[in-house]
Amino acid sequence: MPKDLFKFFSSLKLTVACLLMGCLLVFWGTLAQVHLGLYKAQNEFFRSVLVYWTPSGSNLHIPIFPGGYLLGTVLLINLLCAHLRYYQPGKRKIGIALIHFGVVLLLLGQMLTDFLSRESALHFRIGETKNYTEADRAFELVVLDTSAPDSDKVVAIPCSRLVRRGKVSHPEMPFAVQLKTFYANSQLAQQSQSGYEPVKATAGLGPGIWWREVARETEMNRMDMPSATVEIITPKGSLGTFLVSAWLDRPQTFNFDGRPYELLLRQERYYLPFSLHLIEFRHDRYPGTNIPKNFSSRVRLQNLDNGEDREVRIFMNNPLRYAGETFYQASFDPDDHGSVLQVVHNPSWLTPYFSCVLVATGLIIQFLSHLIPFLKRRLATTGNAAASTAGRRDAGATRKEKKRS
Amino acid sequence: MKKWIPLILVGVMAGWVLSGLRQPSETGFHTSDFGQLPVLMNGRFQPFDSVGRNSLLQIRTKQTVYETDGGKAVTLSATDWLLEAMMKPEAADDRKVFRIDNNEVTELLKVPDNQTYYTFNQIRPQMDEIEKQVRRIEPLESAKRTVFESQLMKLYESLNLYQRLEVSLKPPGSDDFAAELDAYQKSIPAGIAAVNARDAGQKFDQDAFNTLLGFMGGYNTVASFALPLTIPPVDPGLPHDAWQNIGTNLMQTARTGDLNPAAKLYAEMVTAYRAGQPDDFNHAVAGYQAWLGDRFAPQVKKASREYFFSTLEPFYKAMVIYVLALVLALLSWFNLSDWLRRSAFYLVVLAWLIHTFGLVFRMWLEGRPPVTNLYSSAIFIGWGAVILGMVLEKIYRDGIGCVVAGSAGFVTLIIAHNLALSGDTMEMMRAVLDTNFWLATHVVAVTLGYASTFVAGFLAIIYILRGVFTTTLSAETAKSLARMVYGIVCFATLFSFVGTVLGGIWADQSWGRFWGWDPKENGALLIVLWNATILHARWGGLVRERGLMNLAVFGNIVTSFSWFGVNMLGIGLHSYGFMDAAFKWLMLFISSQVAIILLGLLPQKVWRSFSARPAA
């Protein structure tokens, strides 16, 4: 049985089947982007084990096709098994081995990227300094203890954890936070509107506001705006239910035990061990047009840990790589006075570089090892033949001619 | 005699190519000198000639204006037309330059629908109606517009372009522009004094005030609408690209009092042209050339090089020679004489040399690697495919390489010609794409991958068509075709893989992710996967000769999807915009390929070549 299994997993038929299904999946996933948007199509087709189909008007999830992860894994296994089965060490096969090793590296590297990489953004105005980046899509509930005069004590609870646990307490917080309702994407209104319902809040800004849940965003460049109601439960009883929302950009305050606290829902922050200060942002256009020629941010990088303090210029195709993070020029404010950097943390970013070199070398070796002997043979026959049989149109005919003579 | 025919043919065609450089006879006005003058438009320096050509392509879909005037045919070059439109707009308004193909649009305009080209004066009465419609259509996404709506928008853009060109060198209504400029310059001191006095609340000279403001009104129109930036900076401290349009420049003159010599000379050209005085016109053009001389030598040189390039029309000429080569090569299959095949091969080489000259000249003009946009990708794909064809011909000497080269060259240049209709093909690159290193590596590799996949597919088509419909597919030929296809698929795999991964690395450099499943990326990936599928199916013995051919033909579909199809999805960072006409052609192409695959699937006994073979 394991022998059959090995035979199955090492067969070329499986390779062809996987490649064909890969073609179909890529094609289908590309077309699906028109309706689903890039983000959702990516998750449903490529970053998934199975592709599901939901017949309209039902809640069924019927798996109908292997997703990117499954196909990638099967291809990987297939490749490794096939090598175990067929590979004989020697000069002839070195090309194939390099190609396949490169492909394995590429596939593994991309899977690692999917699991390990983290994307966030850094938006700063000219003159602003920041030592954190903000998640594109993840939010956090923040409780600030503002009693100390020069620094705040911050407890940040990722929304995902709040939703999972329901009730969160923390040693730094003398009370617990109880989630009542959570809308992953929402809209707020100041008066009653159709579809909206009153927020069931008892404290802070919440009472008098109306809200509704809306479908999650599927476009890459649009963001969900979550809202929630949370109750602050102290050992002495409840302080009331607050509305927190991505729409509210100012914190709400309350007091407990004589200390002031602030409550805020904001994009999740990732703190950096250094800070960036935007000195200048440039947006050059081609003369007489609105075609952007270049965007660049001149940034001061300060690392207190090692005393590093220098200026860097970040522009298109020229990111800053520092301390495991990479900062790319991504966008800018409409008034050209602020810059947005895309920040990527990806430990496996180098794998495509290696794999490209490996596969290219392998393909060239493989290609030339067939082409050169073939050309030698070919030119030897036609070269000799052409002299004696000028006027013949078919190469095959010329070769026969030569044999006869 | 037959020995010489190929060389004679090549000589004749080469002579024809060079004949294009002969200066056309002129009506006394040195319009070709004018056509070479540099201006700044679309962010780059170019000659007036290119402004004219690109505008006419957009408005009329041709680079010239051809009219039959009372039985007499008149052809205006792009420069002639532009000159008239800018200097004598009232005459240009009667030229049939607006191409309208849609009957609903002609109905809206209340013009007869039996013409292809219409004059501005025919359309003018309905301008308000057009604008009313446009206000409604403009907010709609281009993919959601009906044919009528998108055609009307296209006409509106053409009208807009045309009207802006009309005020690019002189204010509307001005007749003797040179004399007016003189008067303007003289009116400045008194006029400025009057303006200042009025602002200070003192008594002021109403006449001087009105005169100056009268001039300024016209110049203001020019300043806001003129398209090419025609006036170079006089102050050497200014950057070399700080050109202005003539309106902005004249408005500035009110402050400085100094008339820019370029503005003065352009005004003289306008006056001379309107008065029908060739000598004065030529004098002013020559004066301006002399003035530009050393001050703007690089711009002058670039403009005249581009003028030379456009006049030579290397891609058009190469296209014609490719067709000729294709026909001769096809004939050589049926006629056994070798001179046909040799003629075809020589012509392919000639056409390819011209093609290469055009490609390299363009790269030199732009200072860029060969592929910068969809247009140049077509030219480059053709170029690469022709090389493969020539190599095959050199190896096999059986006309197949010539047919591949001839048709690849012809078809891709036709596609390029149609892509050029959207306007300037040497437009500046957006910030993300502005890097010669990646354009030279990623884009070139991917494009060569496209080219070779197409060549493999095309060889397979030859195999199927010759096999099914003729008896010329001998067992030998079939075997060499199979070898060619296999070799080229290997080649295609190499280039498409390397190109795709380099693209990922570029994306990693500029957007911070190696792979984002963007449609263009997926398209490239599809080609890699498909070529890998072909190779593995072949190695695994899942397909033999005919199966290989069918898979290779399907490669054409995959490649066309990735080259054009993904741009039509209208999403993704790479998309060049929706192209509905191209969509129709793409569908047509895909259906034809499906039809060929169906032919390829026919049982062997139906294939004329196989049934003719003695017990193959």
How would you describe this structure to a colleague?
The complex is a heterodimer of chains A (405) and B (616). Chain A has eight helices and 19 strands. In chain A, helix 1 crosses helix 4, helix 4 runs antiparallel to helix 5 and helix 7 (351-388) packs across helix 8. In chain A, 34% of the residues lie in helices and 37% in strands. In chain A, strands 3, 4, 5, 13, 14, 15, 16, 17, 18 and 19 form a ten-stranded antiparallel β-sheet that branches. In chain A, a hairpin with a 6-residue loop joins strand 14 and strand 15. With 405 residues, chain A is α+β, with helices and mostly antiparallel strands. Chain A has three domains: 2-86, no CATH class; 118-129 and 271-345, no CATH class; 137-269, no CATH class. Chain B is mostly helical and 616 residues long. Chain B folds into three domains: 30-166, no CATH class; 177-297, no CATH class; 313-612, no CATH class. Chain B has helices spanning 5-19, 31-35, 48-60, 78-87, 89-92, 103-109, 120-123, 127-137, 147-166, 177-199, 206-225, 246-256, 261-275, 278-292, 297-312, 314-334, 338-366, 374-396, 400-419, 436-469, 475-510, 519-539, 545-568, 580-601, 608-612, and strands at 38-41, 44-47, 65-69, 72-76, 98-99, 117-118. In chain B, the strands form three sheets. In chain B, strands 1-2 form a two-stranded antiparallel ribbon. A two-stranded antiparallel ribbon of chain B has the order 3-4. A two-stranded antiparallel sheet of chain B has the order 5-6. In chain B, helix 20 packs across helix 23 (545-568). At the A-B interface, helix 2, helix 3, helix 5, strand 15 and strand 18 of A face helix 21, helix 22 and helix 23 of B.
Q: How helical, in percent, are the residues of chain B?
A: 55-70%
Average predicted confidence as pLDDT of chain B: 87
Q: How would you state the average pLDDT of chain A, rounded?
A: 84
Q: How many structural domains of chain B?
A: 3
Could you state the oligomeric state of the chains shown? heterodimer
Report the structural category of chain A: alpha+beta
* Terminal-residue CA separation of chain A: 59 Å
Largest sheet of chain A: 10 strands, antiparallel
Largest interface: A-B, 76 and 78 residues
Order of strands across the widest beta sheet of chain B? 1-2
> Beta-sheet strand percentage of chain A?
35-45%
Give the ordered list of helices and strands of chain A: HHHEEHHEEEHEEEEEEEEEEEEEEHH
Name the structural class of chain B.
Answer: mainly alpha
Return the domain count of chain A.
3
Inertia-based shape of chain A? globular
Fraction of residues in H or I helices of chain A: 25-40%
Radius of gyration of chain B (Å): 29 Å
